[in-house]
Design brief:
It is a single chain. The protein has one domain (4-52). 85% of the residues lie in helices and 0% in strands. The chain contains two helices and no strands. Helix 1 runs antiparallel to helix 2 (29-52).
Length: 54
């Protein structure tokens, strides 16, 4: 059960990066929204990582 945390974090990073990259290929408000969701996911992952490793 302890190993699910890092796996979930890695999947979150991959999903966030996918959203940012896919959003850049779309030239519309939807693409911008996808990039913002991806950026929010990346920042959330960094926040959780920094909270654990103080």
């Amino acid at each position: 059960m302890r190993k699910l945390g890092p796996i979930a974090a890695a999947l979150g990073v991959v999903l966030s990066l996918y959203l940012v990259i896919k959003g850049q290929t779309m030239i519309s408000a939807g693409g911008l929204t996808m990039m913002m969701i991806g950026l929010t996911g990346l920042l959330l992952n960094l926040y959780v990582y920094n909270r654990r490793h103080r």
